[in-house]
Structure formats: structure tokens, C-alpha cells
């Protein structure tokens, strides 16, 4: 971590008077720290203890969530967490090249993912395995990306879920263009309207592409929900070093609504995303949602978070676990019994075992597979590269080395 002095921002041309008005390093840190606390600004419908909080604005958006539906959301979260842990373990066993854990972000992803309808489109970054699952994408296909045998080969139109994007912020521009298209094509204007959700992290908000997306989406009233999962860390860079303001407040500068939701509260994420999508469907987009959450594992399996953050931070967030609060609520209110919880755990284990079996036996594609699914239409340049690559490989065969 840097020293307090590094965090001050001297004003240009500051004289002695201005110096006197400068906040102390402690004040600067206190101010910056405040931006990373949930506080009163946070929309929450289920507390970490599993108590329901009522909201006249957002309760109507989850009026259909009875015990059965809530059990469904619980099951979704348990399954994707179990799949995530299995994939992490498989990377450690050398079966995947890398893995990007979602641990801790299940509510943000399941809540927002389940808020979308058929006809809506999602543009993910690289951590949205939970959203992929809600869009009906087989997580086996997601594993293929990380085993380097495939590259987002699901039918994105059928699932309403675009390929993963590793280039930070790039998917926000793609999503903005897509949402502008929804507007130009007259697919916006009433309850049946279409909308788009794009996912990105707190770190991505420092990327120019995201700001450009904000500007274009705003001036064209694009039906786009900017869904920022503020998991507090951009690899080793904490959010408070990337913004003086809470991230959701940035929306105001672009002229559209911004809202901060408890990203560990699946009900709040569902309700707020449904609200934002409704705004977009009716032509009142875009909307920025900051889902305030925490990355409970490493950035990726190549990262060691113990080098830059303290374990007490993780311990604190364990108390706000997105799954435990739903379990507590269901158990306390008679919405589910032990049999249900045991069954979900068994289903999750079977789900993970299936992924593991598939991963170990994943078909190895021919080398030229890397050239497919790159462009929608044929590209002579890519065709030439593929031919060159194949004749290069043939050279090994001719030399008896392949
Ligand atoms: C354009 C670009 N710059 C840098 C990187 C390297 N990089 C990968 S992940 C990452 C941090 C992203 O943090 P955040 O946006 O908060 O998302 P998170 O990984 O926490 O979900 C960076 C800088 C990249 N992939 N793309």
C-alpha cells in the first residue's frame, strides 16, 4: 500500500493560503475511504443477517418472488459457486490454463442475470460465469475458454449473452453500439421493449472506453444498463485509488441515473436491475448500477491477494456472504428445510462432477480451430493466415516431427 502522502492531490499554483486550506493526508484518506463504504446510499432488501428490508420503490419489482422463487435463486447461487470452486481446483491440478473466480459475486450475477428477459442482450467481461449460467450458456463451454480449447463458441444470439471480453472496458463500447441499434430499430418504447446489460468492474471505470460508452449511450438514450460490479479491487488496486466519488455518482455527470445496490443481496440486485431494465425498455435509459460487493478470492489463479490486502478484510466480508443471508431468511421463515438445503448441495456436487468429467475428457480441437468464430463473415486476411499456419504445421509432418 502507498503512504498517505502519495494520496494527496496538490492544487495547481497553490500558494500559502491555498496550502492552509489543503486537507491533511488523514482527511484525504478518510474522504477516500468513505467512498468504499456501503452507507445509507446502499439499496438493500435482505440484510447480511437475512432480515427483509422493505422498500416502496423496489418491492414491486420482486412481488413475484415467493418462497419457491427464492429457493430457485438460492440454488442458482450455490450451483455457480460450486462450479467456480471446482474450476479453481481444476486449474490448480493443471487441467485449466487459468481461472477467474467469481467467489463472493454470486448475488450480483444471479440477481442481475435473472432480471433479463429473452430478447435482452448481455455483454460480459471475463468473470461473469454466473450471468452466463442464467442465460442458459453451458458452463462446459465457459471451461473451454480457460482450457484454451475454445473461445466463447456458444450462440450469443440464442442465449442473449456475448463472448467473454478480456480487454478491460471494450465490451462496454460493443454494448453501447448494440443498445443504440436496439433504439434505432424501434425496439424500445414500452413494456415489450428490449434492453442490454453490460458488465464491468470498478477498475474498468478508469478506462476511456467506459467513459466513451457513458457519453454515447447518454446522448442516444440507449437502452443500456451499465452494471458495475464494484468488488473493491482491480487486481491489487483498491477502488478508492481510482475514484474520489462513489462510482454510481459518476452517472450524474453524464446525465443519467446511477444507483448503488448491495451486490451481495440477490433480491436487491434482481429488483434494481429489473427497474433499470424497465427504464431502458421505455426509452429512459441508460442507467448505471454499482453493485457493491467483494472479490473473496484472488483476481485470477495467477494472483496472490495476500501480497496486497489484509485477511481481516476478507473475514469482514465473509459475514456479508450472499448465499448465507438467503439461507438464513429461508430457514427462519420456514421457506426451506434441511432436506432442501441438502438436496441443493447434492445437486451442486453432481453439477461440479459433471463439469470435471467433461473437462478431463474435453475434445482437443484441431489447431486451425483458433481461426474460427473470429468474424461473422469470411475474412481473406484470416483465411490466408490459416493457410500459412496449416502449411507451417505440415512442414513438421514432412520432417517427421509432427
Ligand atoms: C485494456 C486492458 N488493460 C489492462 C488489462 C489487464 N487487466 C486485467 S484485469 C485488470 C483489472 C480489472 O479490474 P476490474 O475492472 O475492477 O475488474 P475485476 O477483475 O475486479 O472484476 C487489468 C488491469 C487488460 N486486460 N486490458
From TrEMBL:
**GO:BP terms for this protein?**
branched-chain amino acid catabolic process
Q: What NCBIfam families does the record tag this protein with?
A: PDH_E1_alph_x (TIGR03181)
Q: Name the PANTHER family for this protein.
A: 2-OXOISOVALERATE DEHYDROGENASE SUBUNIT ALPHA, MITOCHONDRIAL
Ordered alphabetically, the record's keywords are: Oxidoreductase, Pyruvate, Thiamine pyrophosphate
One Pfam annotation reads E1_dh
Recorded protein name is Pyruvate dehydrogenase E1 component alpha subunit
Question: Span of the secretion signal?
Answer: none
One GO MF term attached to the UniProt entry:
magnesium ion binding
| Residue ranges of domain Dehydrogenase E1 component in the record | 75-350
Q: Is the keyword Oxidoreductase assigned to this protein?
A: yes
Residue ranges, compositional bias (Low complexity): 10-26
InterPro entries, per the entry: Alpha-ketoacid_DH_E1_comp, DH_E1, PdhA/BkdA, THDP-binding
Q: Which cofactor does it need?
A: thiamine diphosphate
- Higher taxonomy: Bacteria, Bacillati, Actinomycetota, Actinomycetes, Pseudonocardiales
Cite the residue spans of the region called Disordered: 1-26
